[in-house]
């Protein structure tokens, strides 16, 4: 749309607003036949009036309508959130602090920590629930459906409903078909008790953005479809001759997902704890080389022997409450050797500056002359 606006401003002379409205209609059209009719009508109308823009539109967009037209992207779930860019930003700025990572080992450790945080946030979202942008849009469309006035109407058929909208002399229609009422997926409207697979609509919200549009909410509110519960429909389908395929319960899926994530997080935390313990052992080795007393070395040796027995017996480092606490012995020096250091003698007399000294010498000379 940005390129269209730039070329409209530069190439169109007289019919700028009309062409903008026509192009928006092209983007919103979800029926292929109607889309091609609108395109051909647009070219016939403005080919003589705005030849430069029509030539630009034909050369750049007519030959590849499948890449930009909404009628070829039904149920595609177009989402502008760049997940990979967000993940790259999290690793580079939130984890690495914006610095350039040169060492491979630090980079791998950083990525593992980021993955552990992702898995932990996934468990939190499973337990607590998360308001996704798609569910937020569904709730917004539900509120919009409550404000739909008398200009909207509907025609109820057997398994198809038609929502009509009267705007001036024009009448817009949206076809709504019934789908799988037994689905219990998370993309749903809790107030209407329907999910994204319960109905399908021909509008842009459902076909392109893949959300429950206001027309579906309107049909569910106005018609008798909402009065029939899901349990009644299940019983009717079970008694019928059709083969029923019920989706897997999402709670069971979440439990399976949690069972797969939790051991991974435990392994990550165990590896990091072992790594930290080995670092402490290396620091202990460096500190042991600086010990100068034999008694201290013997005490440390007894503590390490007890620690080794504990590790070999249990194989874990989680509970070390039974280990003896190392008490450091303080060497007692003779009384004649522990002499306090003499305090430094500090002259508290204020020193004179060079200027004051010169003035003082001049005064003394003057007194001597007198």
In short:
This protein has 370 residues and is of the alpha+beta class. The chain has 13 helices and 6 strands. Strand 4 and strand 5 form a beta hairpin.
Q: Provide a count of the helices.
A: 13
| Class based on secondary structure composition and strand pairing | alpha+beta
Spatial gap, N to C terminus: 102 Å
Biggest sheet: strands side by side, in what order?
Answer: 1-2-3-6
- The total count of strands amounts to 6
What composes the largest sheet? Answer: 4 strands, antiparallel
Unreliable spans are 239-248, 315-331
Helix/strand order, N-terminal first = HHHHHHHEEEEEEHHHHHH
Helix content: 40-55%
Radius of gyration: 40 Å
Q: Based on Cα principal axes, name the global outline.
A: elongated
Beta-strand fraction estimate: 5-15%
What's the pLDDT, averaged over the residues?
Answer: 75
Protein name: SWIM-type domain-containing protein
Region (Disordered): 350-370
Can you offer a commentary on this structure?
The structure is a single chain. The protein is an alpha+beta fold. The protein is 54% helix and 8% strand. Strand 4 and strand 5 (194-195) form a beta hairpin. Helix 1 packs antiparallel against helix 2 (16-28). The longest helix is centred in the C-terminal third of the chain and has 39 residues, at 250-288.
